[in-house]
Write a structure and sequence with these properties.
It is built from 16 helices and 13 strands. With 362 residues, the protein is α/β, with parallel strands linked by helices. The two termini are 13 Å apart.
């Protein structure tokens, strides 16, 4: 069996790490295609080194650009690779433009598509990720959902065939990597004390493409930094937006630490030692839950509704007062509800490959 796997962004490198390991253990041939959607070293190559992923056989080097332009370049490059490699399956991950481009290229060539992390819905079609999810799911032949809610979403859209709740591959890798992370070294390097800081990431287009939203977020962070230390690894998209909008003055606070993007292992250490996480990331709000750290989600909705319903994650509209009020409420809470195993037992990648082998003939 030959697999072509499409990756292009940080969360996809993480997800692919454990699935690729399972492919190798079963003697399955895998061709890894990196679209180049993330091209910054700390957002891309370092993940291949740190997580033990073999180097991609193809790197399209697409880089940033308008949604349509970026997706089109990926589609053109992936199509040529698929025509050359003639795989039995194409595996795509998550909800990025790389995901959609891989799915579109494969479905046009009648190559079966495997979607890892299928069925997520925020029910906000203004998010490009939501469109990517829906189109990919409706094009896929094998759909691996991470939760019961994701399976329910697919069924409500009429997708019943070849849907499997296998758990979350990000939980697999988080459990594996967390055993080898030196928390003390990471925290010492950044001068942080366990449970005495807020970890923040912001990168969604809905926030970075809006001057008002980004200003509201930084005003809230600056106010919170009067009381709490905040560590903020800056995504390249966010840095570009800050420069464009000229809002660097809003981050002038000795307690608000802006950093270059950090590696996955560093992020694990930072997440599990934080007092609270403030983010607009789908992956990081979930990773915070893995490590029993409450999270403020700076969005009006989330694809991980389970975490809001269970009382560990808290939505905040992108207004300064709302972000401050929500963060202070979460920080003041002394007790959180019982932790529930929404994301499986850490064996999602093994289940995916087992199902894939079983369905090799389709």
């Amino acid at each position: 069996m030959k697999i072509v796997s499409i990756v292009g962004a940080r969360p996809q490198f993480v997800k692919a790490a454990v699935v690729s390991e399972q492919f190798r253990s079963k003697g399955i041939s895998e061709i890894l295609v990196h679209t180049g959607q993330h091209y910054d070293f700390n957002m891309s190559e370092i993940f291949f080194e740190e997580l033990g992923i073999f180097k991609p056989q193809y790197n399209l080097g697409v880089g940033s650009g308008l949604q349509g332009e970026q997706t089109a370049k990926m589609l053109m490059g992936i199509e040529k690779i698929l025509l050359k490699e003639k795989p039995d399956f194409v595996v795509v991950y998550g909800d990025t433009n790389s995901t959609l481009a891989g799915a579109l290229a494969a479905v046009k060539l009648h190559i079966p598509i495997v979607h890892v992390e299928a069925g997520l819905r925020s029910f906000n079609k203004n998010m490009p990720e939501e469109i990517n999810r829906i189109l990919t799911d409706h094009s896929s032949d094998l759909l691996f959902a991470p939760t019961d809610t994701a399976v329910k979403n697919l069924r409500e859209e009429g997708i019943y065939k070849n849907v499997y709740n296998v758990g979350d591959v990000m939980f697999d890798i988080a459990l594996k990597v967390s055993k080898s992370v030196d928390d003390y070294r990471v925290l010492k390097e950044h001068e942080l004390i366990p449970k005495k800081y807020i970890l923040t990431t912001i990168h969604r287009a809905s926030n970075t493409d809006s001057k008002e939203n980004l200003k509201n977020i930084f005003k809230a962070l600056r106010k919170l930094s009067e009381t709490y230390k905040i560590f903020f690894p800056i995504h390249p998209r966010t840095q570009k937006a800050m420069d464009l909008y000229g809002i660097s003055g809003l981050v002038e606070s000795s307690n608000l630490i802006l950093s270059e993007p950090v590696s996955y292992k560093e992020m694990i250490a930072l997440e599990r030692n934080a007092k609270v996480v403030i983010t607009d990331s789908g992956g990081i709000q979930k990773e915070a839950y893995f490590f029993k750290v409450p999270c403020v989600v700076v969005r009006s909705e989330t694809e991980w509704v389970e975490l809001v319903n269970v009382g560990w994650n808290f939505l905040s509209v992108v207004e300064t007062d709302s972000i401050i009020r929500t963060a202070e409420y979460v920080i003041s809470k002394e007790k959180f509800p019982a932790w529930k195993p929404f994301f499986g037992k850490g064996d999602a990648s093994k289940k995916i490959v087992e199902v894939l082998i079983k369905n090799a003939g389709l």
